[in-house]
Write a structure and sequence with these properties.
The protein is an alpha/beta fold. The protein has five helices and twelve strands. Helix content is 30%, strand content 23%.
Length: 274
């Protein structure tokens, strides 16, 4: 009689436990360990290369030695350079050029700025400055650029030969503020168009005040009348003014106030009620 060694039951054999899964498990662990070793070596090599690169770019040979500024007339060169905020020993290869450009443009006088590298050891800054377009009166007197940026506060002693744009209501502003509302843009447009108009050739706007109803009052200065008009169709309004003066045969200086806001007539108010 044949007995099973493991079950002691006649006529049946029982195989020994299969050792193949255990061998497969050991092979998988070996491959995993090898993979992790390769990853560790690659990471170590990468960190070593990065550290070597950092040391290379921070060598004294690559330190910024000179900074050139181009295009500046209003802003001093030293002021532009200082706005970069570069620490001593900064590497030419390490600086973020876009970030430096943004720092330069924090100055309200600078409209555009670009910073570039000039190898081997220099940076170049090219700027485009804003130009004063008018004196803006809010709570105080300020220089205003064509794109509506407050450039600087004016002292009482400063008397720039620029037209004055007066806000409809007192408001607090400071240099760097952008105040170009649609009303402000129209006010600047009124000044530009008025300067080009033929109807009052030879006269220059001294002050333009913005009215609450969307109209504007142009002050031509001492011994000259004020002119009230709308921003729309200004050329037509000034054409009608020229035609009315030609018909009356009188000089503009003889009037105290002229109202052009109406489509079908020009209203004159004479000095002393004449």
């Amino acid at each position: 009689m044949i007995r099973d060694y493991h079950t002691a039951e006649p006529g049946r054999f029982r195989e020994r436990p299969d050792e193949r899964p255990r061998r497969a498990s050991k092979g998988y662990l070996g491959r995993l360990a090898g993979f992790l070793l390769v990853v560790a070596l690659l990471v170590g090599a990468g960190l070593g290369a990065w550290e070597g690169y950092r040391r290379l770019i921070r060598m004294s040979y690559f330190r910024v030695a000179e900074i050139y500024v181009e295009g500046n007339l209003q802003v001093a060169t030293d002021e532009v350079v200082n706005s970069l905020g570069l620490a001593p020993g900064t590497s030419l290869l390490e600086v973020d050029l876009a970030s430096l450009s943004q720092r330069v443009m924090k100055n309200p006088w600078i409209k555009e700025a670009s910073v570039g590298r000039r190898l081997p050891l220099a940076l170049t800054i090219h700027v485009v400055e804003r130009v004063p377009e008018a004196v803006f009166i809010a709570d105080r007197r300020y220089l205003l650029s064509a794109d509506g940026v407050i450039l600087a506060e004016l002292d009482n002693e400063d008397l720039p030969t620029l037209p004055t744009l007066r806000a409809a209501a007192r408001r607090r502003v400071r240099p760097g503020d952008r105040i170009l509302s649609s009303e402000m843009a129209q006010g600047l447009a009124v000044w530009r168009q008025f300067q080009l108009a033929n109807a009052v050739q030879g006269e220059r706007a001294h002050e333009i005040a913005m009215g609450g109803d969307g109209s504007y009052t142009v002050n031509l200065g001492q011994e000259m009348p004020t002119i009230r008009l709308r921003a729309q169709n200004m050329q037509e309004q000034l054409r009608r003014l020229g035609a009315a003066l030609a018909v009356s045969g009188r000089s503009l200086a003889l009037f105290d106030d002229v109202d052009l806001r109406f489509r079908d007539r020009v209203i004159f108010r004479s000095l002393g009620g004449r």
